[in-house]
Amino acid sequence: GNSVTQMEGPVTLSEEAFLTINCTYTATGYPSLFWYVQYPGEGLQLLLKATKADDKGSNKGFEATYRKETTSFHLEKGSVQVSDSAVYFCALSHPRRDSNYQLIWGAGTKLIIKP
Amino acid sequence: SQTIHQWPATLVQPVGSPLSLECTVEGTSNPNLYWYRQAAGRGLQLLFYSVGIGQISSEVPQNLSASRPQDRQFILSSKKLLLSDSGFYLCAWSSGNEQFFGPGTRLTVL
Prior knowledge:
Order of helices and strands of chain A: EEEEEEEEEEEE
Radius of gyration of chain A: 14 Å
Distance between the termini of chain B: 38 Å
Oligomer: heterodimer
Low-confidence stretches of chain A: none
Largest interface: A-B, 24 and 23 residues
Strand content of chain B: over 45%
Mean pLDDT of chain B: 92
Order of helices and strands of chain B: EEEEEEEEEEE
Radius of gyration of chain B: 13 Å
Low-confidence stretches of chain B: none
Number of strands of chain B: 11
Number of strands of chain A: 12
Largest sheet of chain B: 7 strands, mixed
Structural class of chain A: mainly beta
Helix content of chain A: under 10%
């Protein structure tokens, strides 16, 4: 079946450090891939997405490349800030029989940035 | 532009009491709607989704139910809350394969 695996957190970094949060997936067909971010006490926001192999999604300095050969969609940022502290979710989207798209979610990775 | 509202933002309820959480979407028509639960420090669990008025699909057996009385209204209910119903409840809508989330309702059952 379809699944998403993320690196376990929390991930603790100093400000201006390089960030990588690993995400790998298992899926049939050609899913779309997403990163969502959840700031403390809030709902989820779409951070970036990629819809086909070799696409790179980017937003707010974050990037992720859809790698079909390694079934990965790792999230990276060159220089993190304290304001990036949040929980990050990797997800894939696949169509269902009723034409609805279901998101398959990773467990989330908590990121803590220290000043 | 589209917006999604949830209320209440926080709720504290005794065990055995009823529950009603409401979600409304503005700026779009015939959206797919979703209810998720997020337990403390954990990931998202899809509870229900709906592709149209009166059409509800349940993903997990539980103490909760959902209804969609109007195109852009999605309600999560329970007749008798359990302690294990505590969590952060998120409503989302989608058009295509991307989902957009509301601000969430934090429910504490005592």
